[in-house]
Write a structure and sequence with these properties.
The protein is an alpha/beta fold. The chain has six helices and twelve strands. Helix content is 18%, strand content 29%.
């Protein structure tokens, strides 16, 4: 037996992939299909399953990281000027039997390593993905969609960066015998960025083109309009301060009551404002909310 085979499987694994195809879903959202024999050993655990994608180095070399247990420490030691950039994405669909995985990219011009690569990419180009390992027997984590059983009311607020996760969440819910009453608000760069989504009679969807407004302004407006649980008599908890220019805002739920659940993801300053509104002002139970800063305007936090 080899040494590798005798070691316990790690929760995450580094996968070598190549771009098979890319196709537009909307002006700003494109689907990228990656393939490779190793993808058969990839797993996904939830509709908002996070992965890390490594892009070519600033010198244009494909990433060649070695998937040892200390890979991240070794990665951090590399000179940022020469190491492959890393960004977080969501698995949109995994077809492990076919060795294929879909990842939806938001394209915003050649303004960063990920969008620049995606804008120029051609089939056959190689990347690396850090994703859950199908051989791992426990819960690898990397997702926050954990609604309570028997959920009755759901609030989803997102921008285009969280739209792939939202689309997967709706597909999962639509397959239930009795999906929850759901309000969905999606902020997008333009009105043409609305895409087809799974639906059911209890789902309401509002697409919110941002136009020239600041990212997240439409999300905050939606939080003001959303139907929320009746505030209890308890005082709102003291919220820890989060500097979204220096740290990632990531409040996760611990839901117990199936009455209400909220999942909010998008530009971090907007999510921070929504956090104050829902918890401090409207007194929504913070344990029923996921509040996630997927990105921060003008910053790189990963």
């Amino acid at each position: 037996m080899s040494q590798e085979a005798s070691q316990p499987a790690s929760p995450y694994k580094l996968f070598d992939v190549a771009l098979k195809a890319k196709s537009p879903l909307s002006p700003h959202l494109w689907r990228f299909t990656f393939e490779g024999p190793q993808v058969g050993r990839m797993a996904t655990l939830a509709p908002d399953q996070r992965i890390k994608i490594f892009f070519p180095t600033p010198q244009g070399r494909p990433p060649e990281l070695v998937g040892t247990p200390d890979w991240y420490a070794r990665y951090k030691k590399q000179d940022v000027a020469t190491r492959p950039p890393m960004r977080t994405y969501t698995i949109r669909a995994l077809r492990a039997h076919a060795g294929e995985v879909d990842v939806d990219f938001v394209l915003h011009g050649e303004t960063g390593p990920a969008s620049t690569w995606a804008t120029r990419a051609r089939p056959g180009e190689r990347l690396q993905i850090m994703a859950p390992n199908a051989a791992f027997e426990g819960d690898a984590g990397g997702y926050e969609w954990k609604p309570p059983q028997g959920l009755r009311r759901l609030l989803l607020i997102a921008d285009e960066t969280a739209l792939p996760a939202v689309a997967g969440i709706l597909e999962e819910l639509a397959a239930l015998p009795a999906p929850p009453i759901t309000e969905l608000y999606v902020e997008t760069p333009s009105e043409d960025d609305a895409i087809p989504l799974a639906t059911w009679p209890g789902l309401s969807v509002e697409w919110m083109p941002r136009g020239l407004e600041a990212p997240g302004a439409k999300m905050l407006g939606a939080a003001h309009r959303a139907a929320l649980p009746t505030a209890g008599s308890k005082a709102a908890p003291v919220l820890a301060e989060v500097n979204v220019d220096e740290a990632i805002l990531w409040d996760v739920s611990a839901p117990g009551d199936a009455g209400f659940y909220g999942w909010v993801a998008g530009e971090a300053a907007a999510v921070l404002a929504i956090r104050r509104l829902l918890i401090a002002e409207r007194k929504v139970d913070k344990n029923a909310l996921n509040l996630m800063g997927y990105w921060r305007e003008g910053r790189v936090l990963d």
